Known about the structure:
GO terms for molecular function: DNA binding. InterPro entries: CheY-like_superfamily (IPR011006), NreC/VraR/RcsB-like_REC (IPR058245), Sig_transdc_resp-reg_C-effctor (IPR016032), Sig_transdc_resp-reg_receiver (IPR001789), Tscrpt_reg_LuxR_C (IPR000792), WalR-like (IPR039420). Residues 10-126 form the Response regulatory domain. It holds the Pfam family GerE. Residues 149-214 form the HTH luxR-type domain. The chain is an alpha/beta fold. It folds into 2 domains: 3-141, Rossmann fold; 152-212, Winged helix-like DNA-binding domain superfamily/Winged helix DNA-binding domain (Arc Repressor Mutant, subunit A, Orthogonal Bundle). Helix content is 51%, strand content 13%. The protein contains 11 helices and 6 strands. It has helices at 3-7, 18-28, 43-52, 69-79, 94-103, 115-126, 134-141, 158-168, 173-180, 184-198, 203-212, and strands spanning 9-14, 34-40, 57-60, 85-89, 107-110, 131-132. It has a 6-stranded parallel β-sheet, sandwiched between helices. The longest helix is centred in the C-terminal third of the chain and has 15 residues, at 184-198. The protein is elongated and about 55 Å long. Residues 1-5 have low confidence and may be disordered.
Amino acid sequence: MSKMQTNNIRILIVDDHAIVRSGLKMIFEHVSDFQVAGEASNSRELLEQLSKNVYDILLLDMNMPGMSGAELISRIKACYPCLPILVLSMYDEPHIAMMAIKAGASGYITKDCDLDVLLPAIRAVSSHQTFITPGLAAKMVFTETPSATSALHSLLTNREMQVFKWLVAGLSINDIAATLGISNKTVSTHKAKMMEKLHVSSIVELTRYAIQHNIGA
């Protein structure tokens, strides 16, 4: 292996959307010190990749199927404590970013960021520094962190709580969209954000949470 290759930042891209992974790879191909050394579309593939190869940074989507983002980050850091994790997320909410950082991520940026944010973020986090999207970092400073005794559902917006209750009541995404007069995609976004905040990854877990906290429709 040449010296240039050795000095490259070895990146593992983890996102359940193939088009996102492909887009990132196309961008990184034109960055001289970046090397896409692996990719994964779910938590199983991710853990398999980590068991076989060494990476300088994990570029991780916060909303992965099968496991909440915070739970996945905690699991990775328990097994690979020295691996820097940079979250690349569609969510720009301070509470979600704080959950990721608390779980062990070294950085958090949103998917609508420019390259002049993404590239420095990767370089910083791979060097074991912290990087958070500037605008989001400012919000986090002025966001009150829930106490240990606060229920996670206190973080939900009114609309997310509506979606929560209706999902537990058995309504489908289509039913909820029709009731609220919004698109299926918008309901799905509310669902994803709500489940991330509650640290659940399935309707079964969501129902269990509702029962435990006496939340009904």
